[in-house]
Amino acid sequence: MFDSYYFSDEHLSDLADLHRDRFRTAEPFPHIVLDDFLPEWVLDTVLSEFPKPGEVPWKTFERATSKKLASEGDAFFGELPDTCSLSSTRPPSLAFSSG
């Protein structure tokens, strides 16, 4: 069993309201950096459960403007990284990230 973590709809809504103007007026494009967005225990757990380069059969994509590692599914990830990833695709999370 693991400690689960889900993005709170109310917390995301409060953060969006608080930082909306700063996000929209940021240069050179709309963006924001939020310190302490995740509780420290969540970040520590995700980092410890997330596979490192070389630990799984990563697919590498290198382009002039980006570098990316991709996997062939979530079987290589721990439970908390998988849960956080799924939580981030829920409608409230997507609304928050779209400004």
The total of beta strands comes to 2
Q: How many discrete domains?
A: 1
Which regions are unreliable across 5 or more consecutive residues at pLDDT < 50? none
The best one-word shape is globular
The radius of gyration over CA amounts to: 16 Å
Q: What proportion of the residues form beta strands (DSSP E)? A: 5-15%
- Helix count, per DSSP? 4
Distance between the termini: 35 Å
**What average pLDDT do the residues reach?**
80
Biggest sheet features:
2 strands, antiparallel
Tell me the series of helices and strands, N- to C-terminal.
Answer: HHEEHH
Widest β-sheet, arrangement of strands:
1-2
- Broad structural category: mainly alpha
Task: Describe the protein's architecture and organization.
Helix content is 43%, strand content 8%. It has 99 residues and is mainly alpha-helical. It has one domain (9-97). Strands 1-2 form a two-stranded antiparallel sheet. The termini are far apart.
Write the topology of this structure:
Elements: H1 9-25, H2 40-49, E1 59-62, E2 67-70, H3 79-87, H4 91-97
Antiparallel strand pairs: 1-2
Question: What are the key terms here?
Answer:
99 residues, mainly alpha, two-stranded antiparallel ribbon, 4 helices
